[in-house]
Specification:
Length: about 220
Amino acid sequence: MIGRLAGRIDYRAADHVLIDVGGVGYLVYCSDRTLAALPGIGEHAAVYTDLLVREDLLQLFGFTTLAEKEWHRLLMSVQGVGAKASMAILGTLGPEGVGRAIALGDAGSIKAAKGIGPKTAQRVVHELKDKAPEVMAMGATHAVSAGPTPEADTDAVIEAEIAPSVTVSAGNSAAQAEALSALTNLGYAPGDAAAAVAQAAGNGESETPALIRAALKLLAPKS
């Protein structure tokens, strides 16, 4: 399968871009947030991709981080959530917001996405809550590297597997992942730790030490 594309953006539409890779154009569908993060027409870009295969359809979806791609895969595993609904959820909340909502059991935030009803939102939270710590702890801020320039050799641009050697951007996702790792190392259950970190982040904490302190207070036994 195609796991990553790097090339020149030739065309942008409301829900997809056309990326030229060595003279071959790939239509890649993205969430609103991902589209906003991509450069303009004529510029070089790279995205992680997931290929949807149906009897009458082959459709590529693009993501700027591995966490976003993983949430898309997990969201689509929930009954009633197709590719369009997954893109709506990710476009509304972003991967961090999805992780926070699911870790906290906040179906209302999931329901805020276009086309998502209350029953579907509840299923998403119920079925994926145990998955939230794993996704939050992964390289959530691993952003796809733009890779070679358009003039470079394109033989290795289309990759079947994603290598871990991607660029890392600093940000709140990294701090949350570090805080979650620290709490699980202290012996807290991954689900409880993820919920506490998500709540602390929602309260405005953004640095790793502050997230850990706030999460520890939330996890402390209530007297």
